[in-house]
Amino acid sequence: MKGWKSTYEPRDWQNVALERWKEHNAGIVQVVTGGGKTVFAQLCMLDFFSSESSGQALIVVPTVSLLDQWCLALQDELNVSPQQIGLLSGQERPRGDEPIIIAVINSARRFSSNFAKGRRVFLIVDECHRAGSPANAKAMEGNFAATLGLSATPEREYDEGFSTLVAPKLGPIIYEYTYKEAARDGVISPFSLTNVHVDMLPDEEDQYRRLSKSIARSLRKGSAGEGQEDRLKWLLQQRAAVSANATMRIPVAIKLIEAHRGERAVIFHERILAANTILASLLKRGHRATIYHAEIGPEVRRDNLRLFRKGHFDVLVCCRALDEGMNVPEASLGVVASSTASQRQRIQRLGRILRRAKGKESATIYTLFSTEEEKNRLQTEASNLEGITTVTWQQSRVRADA
User: Fold this and answer.
1) N or C terminus of the chain: which is more exposed, having fewer CB within 10 Å?
2) Are residues 68 and 149 in the same domain?
3) Same domain, 75 and 115
4) Are residues 280 and 375 in the same domain?
5) What span, in angstroms and rounded, lies between the C-alpha atoms of 155 and 139?
6) CA dihedral 244, 250, 253, 259 (to 10 degrees)
7) CA dist., res. 29 & res. 78, Å (int)
8) Whole-angstrom Cα distance, residue 85 to residue 108?
9) What share of the chain is helix, strand, coil (3-state, %, to 5)?
10) Range of the domain at 44
11) Residue 383: which residues within 8 A CB-CB, separation 6 or more?
């Protein structure tokens, strides 16, 4: 399209991957979060539109936060005008004639197939592992002139949806770019990880222990008995919630931000109520902080994200809505106040802070944990990152009995 031009010089891996994609105008690229997969998709778009001037691109994303991110990135990084972008979500509708339409996958299920009829459409599915369920796979239905899948972790953890639903529509994995390669090439910032043990309050510990005993009893029973599997799932969710909502995670997260006052920081928490509490406390202490979560209107969300990136705020407090959808390379400090057991979520959150930016020499990530289960996952991660970064362990000085 006239006037569109990438503001980035392509990296070596992007040039190699682009040539592979151009062989069939199809395929999936597996790239570590922060490695430049969105910019790579933009390069593919420029190539597509160079020969398909009347074509259109349909970008399918899993969440409204990622819709926001793409909307900003296309304007800031590819010089696309807002009028050339249509947005499809539960809150917004496109005209339909825009060169680029960004659609949340829930809405794209009922849109993609009809949209592709009689058009030359380039389908891009970001975080394409999310399209691996029968319901979400409907967003990939239709005859497309070109396809591209993007994900740091395209294979799904608990089913065969990638091989049976995603790859047949988008093509095979044509390129992989790992943490090790990104660190070697200087694509992601040098970083350090610090895992901080946070005490639970006595009543929280008691509740956690009781749930653990119930889980053990349920596991001993196995699948015998009607509803046992559902009960086990419920117990695991309840126990995870006790840990994620541990009261002391909030003051410990705030103290870490206080120790790094003035640094560009992102705080991740699982719960909106806790995120709001953290924001209120930071504002009371004089921090320039803002917030981003799914319950905020789309215009305000985008403004908060843009203003944080431009330096009007130092701290961004966010919930899971940003795991797949935030590009904040300016942030050099991450505090994971609470998290789930998902390895994919962990990769996403690390990647948010590891992106390169002008003047950013390194990144620091603190992860708060309260349980042995969390500690074991972090120890496994530390082993996998050996030779890439340093991992240290601390006991929080903010005590539950203080």
Assistant:
1) C
2) yes
3) yes
4) yes
5) 18
6) -170
7) 20
8) 15
9) 45, 20, 35
10) 12-183
11) none
